[in-house]
Amino acid sequence: MLSLNGVEKTYANTGKVVLKDINLQIQEGEFICMVGPSGSGKSTLLNCIAGLELPTKGEILLDGEPIKKPGADRVVMFQESALFPWLNVVENVKFGMKMIGIDAKEQKDRAMHYLEMVHMADYSRYAVSHLSGGMKQRVQLARALAMDSRILLMDEPFSALDKQTTNILRDEVERIWEETNKTILFITHSVEEAVFFANRIYLMSAKSHTIAKTYEIDLQRPRHIEQKEFLEIRREILEEIRLQMADSQSA
Predict the structure, then answer these.
(1) How confident is the prediction for the chain on average, in pLDDT?
(2) Secondary structure of 213-250 in the HEC alphabet?
């Protein structure tokens, strides 16, 4: 479904290399997570897949077609909610659909369907300013799902939230992924979060800006962060990140 072949990114103004020789394949319906230290290129890679940036070398293909610009087939959910404060909840969810020409009835039906899915239907007429951080992220998730994109790109969507809210939203995203079979690429600093969600985890290197290691996660779902196998995988990945960071500092 999604192929990255020899993808590299160098910023011309600084000469800084942020991605180097990235090769990966993502199949329809997979939940993929990317982890790694700050500066390893995770968000840049997501932006290239979204079409918000173009790689310096290599190609990114969706269903065999090169990605050259943003498109409705790839929707991004950012760390900050990015909701429009002048629109109420349901109008925020309808906004993207309106931009791509979906008719008004379909907009309303889809918006309410996905607000129901994220348990925000009762707040459909609320002003965004009246929502908590967790509620705003639920609305942003509903807006992303309503676009019915091929891939949902999530860039640390829970990192600004408290632990209790994060745990609740993790369970919601897991449930929604199982219900919708949506292909998800999820960027996170939290190894625990990655092991909780992923079919496969890519570990990015801050030193080489490549994929340093790939972990296939075949734990039974639903996953529990206190189970022995979960903790063993989490410990293994954290140790690899620690070694990477030590190696980077000694270079």
Answers:
(1) 93
(2) EEEECCCCCCCCCCCHHHHHHHHHHHHHHHHHHHHHHH
